[in-house]
């Protein structure tokens, strides 16, 4: 082999090795695990088979609220064709904003501006669970400048005490990387956060994971097995990583499904966490849709 050819081949394998190392396919020295649902009982689920959101299972904490680079509004959430759909798009005319103040039992009209609108739903106050396996089957919104997520929370997340045992934000997945223009692939991210969201916030990025199919056009499952000792993350039933950082949450947590725009104060003006600038999204992709086939929660037998 000639020297130029040898150098080219060597460079290729070095680049390939660096690429796969950056994916953090799974952590630790353990064998990669496949989830066995025969070891669990299904205890809660929503298959989204109706014509509207089941309000005994999901709620909106606000009719509308400013959220990072846009607004969450319940009109952006629908159920159709056996799926939950959270839409995301720019609205020249702001959606109606009637805010219910539960403390004073009044409805107040607060006008918002034109901007980027999307939605979020939560089981807060309706369903919480301690430990188990939690899974969503979904297609991701095909757009830059935003991300969808399936995550878990409780109020203990805000406690600043150096521990995640009272509460940890568990990000089963976040879809920051539509077409990941830097590397040319499709990825999701998983991780955890605790000790609030200020200067004392702590967290761990479990990894950035590549999907071999098109997650914007095809369904995939994303799950987490939460035990008293660790969180184990899965894509399509295959383990991707695990962590016990901060100490595992020992308190029940509620579920959230959401889409958020990069930016702040309701202005979409940044490339947050690698989302890519929103201008990179083709016009025909709007509205972008986060399509959820089901959410299922299991307890170990």
């Amino acid at each position: 082999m000639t020297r130029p050819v040898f150098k080219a081949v060597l460079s290729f394998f070095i680049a390939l090795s660096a690429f796969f190392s950056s994916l953090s396919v799974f952590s630790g020295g353990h064998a990669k695990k496949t989830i066995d649902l025969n070891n669990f009982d299904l205890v809660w689920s929503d298959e989204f088979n109706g014509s509207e959101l089941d309000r005994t299972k999901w709620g909106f904490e606000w009719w509308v609220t400013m959220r990072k680079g846009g607004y969450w509004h319940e009109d952006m959430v629908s159920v159709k064709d056996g799926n939950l759909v959270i839409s995301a798009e720019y609205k020249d005319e702001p959606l109606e904003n009637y805010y219910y103040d539960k403390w004073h039992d009044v409805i107040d009209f607060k006008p918002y501006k034109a901007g980027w609108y999307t939605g979020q739903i939560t089981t807060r106050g309706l369903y919480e669970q301690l430990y188990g396996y939690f899974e969503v089957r979904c297609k991701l919104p095909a757009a830059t400048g935003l991300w969808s997520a399936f995550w878990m929370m409780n109020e203990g997340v805000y406690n600043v005490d150096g521990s995640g045992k009272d509460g940890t934000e568990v990000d089963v997945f976040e879809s920051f990387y539509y077409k990941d223009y830097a590397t040319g692939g499709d990825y999701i991210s998983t991780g955890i956060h605790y000790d609030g969201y200020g200067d004392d916030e702590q967290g761990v990025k479990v990894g950035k994971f590549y999907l071999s199919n098109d997650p914007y056009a095809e369904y995939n499952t994303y799950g987490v097995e939460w035990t008293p000792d660790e969180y184990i993350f899965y894509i399509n039933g295959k383990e991707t990583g695990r962590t016990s950082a901060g100490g595992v949450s020992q308190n029940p947590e509620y579920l959230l499904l959401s889409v958020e725009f990069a930016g702040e104060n309701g202005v979409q003006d940044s490339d947050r966490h690698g989302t890519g600038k929103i201008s990179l999204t083709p016009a025909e992709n709007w509205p972008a849709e986060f399509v959820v086939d089901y959410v299922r929660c299991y307890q170990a037998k």
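Helices lie at 3-22. The domain at 28-300 is CATH 2.60.120.200 (Jelly Rolls).
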